[in-house]
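Structure tokens please, single chain.
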Amino acid sequence: MTPHHTTVPARRSAPRGGRPAATWEQARATARDAVQPLPAAALAPAQALGHALAAPLAARTDLPPFDTSAMDGWAVAGPGPWRLEDRTLLAGTRPAPLRPGAAAPIATGARLPAGATAVLRREHGATDPATGTLHVRSAAPGAAPGTDIRVQGHECRTGDPLLPAGATVTPAVLGLAAAAGHDRLRVHRRPTVELLVLGDELLTFGLPGDGRVRDALGPLLPPWLHALGAEVTGHHRVPDAAAPLTEAVRRSSADVVVTTGSTAAGPVDFLHRALRANGAELLVDSVAVRPGHPMLLAALPGTGSRPARHLVGLPGNPLAAVAGLVTLAAPLLGRLGGRTPDGPHRARAAAALPGHPADTRLVPVRRAENGVTPLPYDGPAMLRGLARADHLAVLPPGGATEGEYVTVLPLPTG
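Here you go.
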């Protein structure tokens, strides 16, 4: 097994300007506190999918709205045997009352007639055509009052709260909202994101060679940004030069600009210069986390009718970029979209999880019944471990021993 990437200096790095790097927890909190939820709008359910509720979802009707049959069989009134009525009770109709001692065939989901006391399942009953009666089969359960009836209001009553504000609208939420009588849902707008991929060495197809490598972040980031609640409105390659990067940042109308690479102080790292040229305020400039410590967060001022925006600078190495995504982009986009943040997830370490001597470390892991297990190939430029991971373990300085509980972040599934 390839050893875990632990060859990092013990001294905590400082960002440009010499200020101490933000802790991982401080960086996450700064990103979430930097913004307020975007405005709300009432959308048709199909349009609201993936948005966050801007107001609690309350029931507009009882569920079920009336007593219904839970099974195919017979609606019966009182104890048997019963006289069979010459009608069938089907869903979508309002039946006439059922007389005492009578029974009528009924379909699953059909409204129960007044006077019915139970439903006798089809497999539990037998009819006698000669006498026009229904009786319970030998050894079958009877039809005690309330049997196989879905009682009006059993799931909820009109006005009951169903989901809190901040809940994400999933397909199941759409079904619940429709059943509860909603034609439109009040939700927050999804934040828009423009992705700027930097690096003249990047190839978009073919095999690497002659100093050039394939772009891994271009395919990886858009679906993950979408899973985090964003609407990716643009995805562009930007040359390694100050002027085109400055112009791309200035031109973007997205709520959040996400860049890859150029966050450090190398010979082609022009992001800080582009931010200064755009009058940006650096909110986070390096984080004490490995991988990904050169990540940054900046506020871009509004101009004229254009509101203020934000920029998340991700490091160019793939796993380091993912660390920046979960550290800065996830809380920022979640708050903009009005999503309720998940509480911390804790899991037991099924094996020792090596950490960094001074900084937080994010490690790809797989979660199983016995806890989380670290995966090999977890260096900043590697994706092999991440491709098998379902969580990132958040390790304090020094790491965690086997059996210790650690914070884990579920990875987006796209």
